[in-house]
Every structure is written in C-alpha cells, then in structure tokens.
Amino acid sequence: MTDQTLIILGASGDLTARLLLPGLGALLKTGQVPGLSLIGAAVDDGWDDARWRQRVADSAGVDLETRWIRADVTRADDLRTLVAAAAGPPAVFFALPPAVTARACEALLDVDLPEGTRLVLEKPFGSSRESAADLNRLLTRLVPEERIHRVDHFLGKSTVLNILGLRFANRIFEPLLNNTHVASVEIVFDESLALENRAGYYDHAGALADMIQSHLLQILGVLAMEAPISLDAGEFRDRKADVLRATRLWTTDPATSSLRARYTAGSISGKTLLSYAEEPGVDPARRTETLAELVLAVDTWRWSGVPFRLRSGKAIGSSRKEAVITFKKPPRVPDGLTGCDQPDRLRIGFGPDALALDFNINGPGDPFELDPVSLEASFGAGELPPYGEVLRGVFEDDPTLSIRADVAEQCWRIVEPVTSAWRAGEVPLLEYPAGSSGPSDSLLGD
Ligand code: NDP
Fold it and tell me: Which of 28, 233, 368, 444 shows the greatest Cβ crowding within 10 Å of its Cβ?
C-alpha cells in the first residue's frame, strides 16, 4: 500500500475522541495500513500539535505520524492548506456538524483534489430527501461515487454481517423467513444513555433521524434482502437497495404508523436525570423526540403483509438492542398438548452480539405440558471495532459497508411522511420517565 493521509475535519470533537481514533488505533495495530499519516483539524484556537498528539495517544493508543492544522473548513483556502499537507491521496473524514459538512463540501469545489481522494461522510446524511439529493449532486462534482463513503457504523458491525451468514450459509432458517411463516419483525435499539451533553447535535436530529432513518433502516435492509450472489460491493448494495426501495409506512396515516415521545426526569442505575426539556442546550420548543417508533411495510413478494416495527429510545431503564423475528403459530397443535402460547422467536442481539431461538417444547414434569426454551449462541466479537471496519473499507477503496447515494435518499423518503406529520403536530409527543421502559403506548407487539 502506498503512502496515504487521513485528514480528520472536526478532530477536536466527540466522535473523533470516542469512536474514530480508537477504531483507527485498532486498525493500525493489525498492520493493514502501513504508511498512513494523520492530520487533525478544527477551528478552535485551543488546539496545537502537542495537545492533538496527546489526544491521539490517549484515544488511538498507537504511535503515529501526525500533526494539527488549525482550519475553518468552510473556507477554501484553509482546505487547500490541509490537502497540500497530505502525503499521498487524502481520505477526508468529515467529523463535523451536518450543516458544517455541507458548507465544507461547497468550499471544496474551489480546491484541486488529488487523484484518489476519498470523502468520508457521517450520518445524518442531509436532513431530508431533497437535501440528501443536493449533497449527493455536490459530492459527485468532487470525486467519483465509488470514492464517497457515507458511513453507517452499524453496518460496520460484524453482527450485521453475521446476519448474512445466519440467513444464507445454512438451510435451516431461510426457508422460513417469509410471509408464510413470519408474523412480524422488530428492530429495537433502546439505550440507557441519555443526552450525554450532545444537545447541539441531538436537539436538531432526534431519535428518528439519529437512529431509525439511518442505522435501523440499514439493519432492515440486511435482514430482509434477497440472497446476494456475492458479498462484493455492487451485489450487496444492490440487494439492500431493492429492499429499501420497497419499504414504506405501514399505513398512509402517520398517526397510526408512528409514535414519538420525550423523556421526563427520572433515574437510571441510581443516577438522577433531568428531563430532556431541561437539559442544557435543549430548546424545549423544538419538541425533539428522544424515542421514536415506526411500523413499516416491505412491499416485496417475500415480505408483503409482514409488519416491520422499528424503535429507538434514549434513557430507557434496561437497554435492549436486538432484531426479533416472530413466527406465526403452528397451523394446529395436537389435542392434548397444552401450555405455553408464546410464539416462536428468532432473536439477533446487537450488543451483546448473540443469537437466540425461543420456542415451546414438552418440558420436564408433565410431558403434555409445553414449556418455553431458548437455544442460545454467541456470535463472538469481530476483529475490529465498528470504526476500524469503516476505516478499513475507506483505505481499501471498498464501499461495501458504506451507504450508496440512492439509498441515502430512499431512507429519507421512507421517513418523510412521518417527519411532516410530526412537524404539523398530527402525532402527539408522549412522555416517559427516564429509567422507565418507555411510554405506556407502543406500536411494538407483546
Ligand atoms: P462535536 O460537536 O463534538 O464536534 C464537532 C467538531 O466540528 C469539532 O471538532 C468542531 O471544532 C468542528 N467544527 C465545527 N465547525 C467547524 C469549522 N467551521 N471548521 C473546522 N471545524 C469545525 O460533534 P461530534 O463529534 O459528536 O459529531 C460529528 C459528526 O459525527 C456529526 O455529523 C454526528 O452526527 C456524527 N456522529 C457522531 C457520533 C458521536 O457519538 N459523537 C456517532 C455517530 C455519528 P471546534 O470546536 O474547533 O469548532
């Protein structure tokens, strides 16, 4: 591999410290990116080479050739300086607030980008279908589509790739995964974390854009796709795009197919939490939701008639991160067998990464009485943390795990009826205490 440079725009921020640098460190430790140098940039005067090197040492845990360049990335002159400082083709990572990313891309139109430049963009990609399309048009004026990496670190997770192995590398589950046998699918990402001082970003995004429009729809795409011929970028992304093109709200009425809520004061693990509306930096009048639920239809031959329920919430007492496939009841249980009426379920956990198959069998004691059992397996951890996998894809020019331009727009198309209805006040904003299991109403099944 030739020399190359990673330029992080927004290198003093939370993403860089908490996820990007640790991922980079793990990747570098595998020895897969020799000759990499790193440039950190942000606009705050409080940063210099020494402080940045310390940040890299603390967060990445590797000894790496790096320097700090102060830059206002909305200015073409500053961007030109950054690109000129790169050894080899740069990978430019936009670890910036979304509005600043759009302005930095516009400024890049006035910069000569070296052959081989890659642009790496964070979610949320745009803020609507129209703005995502505008950003896509702008980006393709800068570099070819195959060098644009729209990051979704959930897709970097080995767990999600494990779904493909589970579905397509055996004959056991796949014949059952269709509307003949499946009653419903849930994809849930409830976390105990609250706002964590991220009001500047989150209060403009909310749970729908932060989690469902991005991560959870990507998981749906992998869970519901037809078998790709291979795992190369073209095949894999085509099959995922097929599913998302076919996905729409379950009914035409967002009031029955969506739910939104915001946490009030409460406590989690003994820690007292303010209500979301009182968190520093939050504008309560924005009525930003901290929990969102959607019911979607995937209008394909395989999935027609099966509801896909997506939910994500913050400040939930017990975190739950899993996809659950609930099967229909058996056509007939022989007379004389009694007991458990719970449906069979296949559960794929996203942390801890695990698989469970829940079903009813004749249990101990009375053999005519059914009992629920669970067969469980661990997927095991991947070689790299999610951002390590994301960066490996960037440095190897492999866009398999990144979001293609049309898919980024489709994901906004899917949620747009909901965002419009919420904005118009057609769906009430419910409340739930921090530390609870969410609002008492829910669109999830039992
Ligand atoms: P932060 O607010 O913590 O950091 C933003 C960074 O952008 C700061 O370094 C800031 O530098 C810099 N910046 C802002 N304006 C300019 C400018 N004009 N020129 C140069 N630098 C500028 O945000 P996050 O790190 O949390 O998020 C960054 C992106 O990553 C967002 O798109 C977010 O959605 C996404 N993301 C974040 C995750 C997270 O857990 N944090 C997870 C997944 C995605 P300065 O202080 O100098 O202004």
Answer: 28
8 A C-beta contact, residue 317 and residue 288: no
Query: Reduced to 3 states, what is the DSSP secondary structure of residue 9?
Result: strand
Mutate to test the pocket of ligand 1, among 43, 119, 149, 196 (most ligand atoms within 8 A of CB): 43
Question: Catalytic positions, please?
Answer: 215
Candidate CATH numbers 3.30.360.10, 3.40.449.10, 3.40.30.10, 3.10.350.10; the one for domain 155-433: 3.30.360.10
Q: Which residues of the chain have pLDDT under 70?
A: 1-2, 155-157, 159-160, 446
Place of tokens 């309560």: 284
pLDDT of residue 1: 53
Give the relative orientation of helices 405-423 and 129-140 as an angle to the nearest 10 degrees: 150
CA torsion angle 259 406 305 252 (round to 10): 50
CA dist., res. 273 & res. 399, Å (int):
40
Report the b/e string of 268-294 with b at 16+ CB within 10 A.
beeeebbbbbebeebeeeeebbbbbbb
CATH 3.30.360.10, the chain: domain bounds: 155-433
Q: For residue 9, how far is its CA from the centre of ligand 1 (angstroms)?
A: 8
Distance (Å) from CA 157 to ligand 1 centroid: 22
- From the CB of residue 63, how many other CB atoms can be counted at a distance below 10 Å? 10
Residue minimizing CA distance to atom 42 of ligand 1: 15
Give the nearest ligand 1 atom to 46 CA. 47
Where, residue-wise, is CATH 3.40.50.720 in the chain?
4-122
pLDDT in tens, 374-414: 999 998 777 888 899 999 999 999 988 899 999 999 999 99
Ligand 1 site residues (CB inside 6 A) read 9-16, 18-19, 42-44, 71-74, 95-98, 100, 122-123, 200-201
CA of residue 19 to ligand 1 center, whole Å = 12
Ligand 1: which atom is nearest the Cα of residue 44? 47
**Interval between CA 143 and ligand 1 midpoint (Å):** 23
